[in-house]
Design a protein that fits this description.
It is a multi-pass membrane protein. InterPro entries: ATP_syn_F0_a_bact/chloroplast, ATP_synth_F0_asu, ATP_synth_F0_asu_AS, F0_ATP_A_sf. Helix content is about 70%, strand content about 10%. By secondary structure, the protein is mainly alpha-helical. The strands form two sheets. The protein has a two-stranded antiparallel ribbon. The protein has a two-stranded antiparallel sheet with strand order 3-4.
């Protein structure tokens, strides 16, 4: 450990200096605004979202906008890193270390080796998307939209809050959880055959079928609610604590802790649970 040193290039040092300066500036501006804003106005819209009703179908535009932006970013990132060099640079080495860690975990968890690679792809994709979503939703100042009950936009506020994380929307988390459930059973049918897969619903005896069914339905519910509770609840907690400590420098610490540390942990947990659910169906 004594020989471990982290070095930055001149461009990276300039970027970090500019980023930290802007980060502190936004925090100071928020503190100044909170001083002038009554508590009733700050917490009056807490927890409310910009919801648009289209022929009875309710959607959250910010979830779609931010989620699409993250997906495009990951596609561009994958395209730029599609050609790996024999002697990796720091970016390639960083990505390889993450991918290698996930592949080792998946390889040890999945009993049928035919499904190691597809499970690895699913787990790493979920991890990268959820990580970016959690970080920008908990640590990156962004845009907040204030709308009325009809969905009409009343006000757009810059840098008064973090970006609305797609993982802070239960619909996003539930979609991913249901996707993992479907994938796990599709892999199980291909691995065991349809008859053996069907028998597993009645294991160890037919009386257990209702319990087995409830257990499978409970997986996506608990899978999605765990992530939603930590990210959605964390965002509200940061908002409240930031107001309570508005005369101090604490909001930056809250943003960093909930956005980066908790965000990374929850992304990893969600991905590992996906691996565990797929593994249990293949066992």
């Amino acid at each position: 450990m004594d020989g471990l040193k982290i070095t930055f290039s001149k461009k990276e040092k300039i970027f970090l200096a500019v980023f930290i300066s802007l980060y502190v500036l936004v925090a100071v501006l928020n503190i100044q605004q909170l001083k002038r804003t009554p508590m009733e106005e700050i917490f009056g819209g807490l927890g409310k979202r910009w919801i648009v009703d289209i022929n009875g179908f309710r959607i959250n535009p910010m979830t779609i906008i931010v989620g699409t932006a993250i997906a495009i970013f990951l596609i561009v990132l994958a395209y730029r890193l599609r050609k790996f060099e024999m002697i990796p640079n720091r970016k390639q080495a960083f990505m390889e270390s993450i991918l290698e860690m996930f592949y080792e975990i998946v390889d040890e968890s999945i009993p049928d080796k035919r499904f190691v690679k597809p499970t690895f792809v699913v787990a790493t994709t979920l991890f990268l998307f959820i990580t970016i979503s959690n970080i920008i939703g908990g640590a990156v100042p962004g845009v907040s939209v204030v709308a009325d009950e009809t969905g009409a936009v009343q006000k757009v506020v810059l840098f008064n809050d973090t970006w609305p994380a797609p993982t802070g929307d239960l619909n996003t988390n539930l979609t991913y959880a249901v996707m993992v459930l479907i994938i796990s059973h599709a892999f199980a049918i291909k691995s065991k055959g349809f008859k053996e897969w069907l028998k597993s619903w009645f294991y160890p005896n037919p009386v257990m079928f209702p319990i087995n069914l409830i257990g499978e339905l409970a997986k996506p519910i608990s899978h999605s609610l765990r992530l939603f509770g930590n990210i959605g609840g964390g965002a509200i907690l940061v908002y409240i604590l930031s107001y309570m400590t508005k005369y101090f420098f604490a909001p930056i610490i809250f943003w960093g802790f909930f956005g980066i540390f908790v965000g990374l942990v929850q992304a990893f947990v969600f991905s590992m649970l996906a691996v565990a659910y797929i593994s249990s169906q293949l066992s």
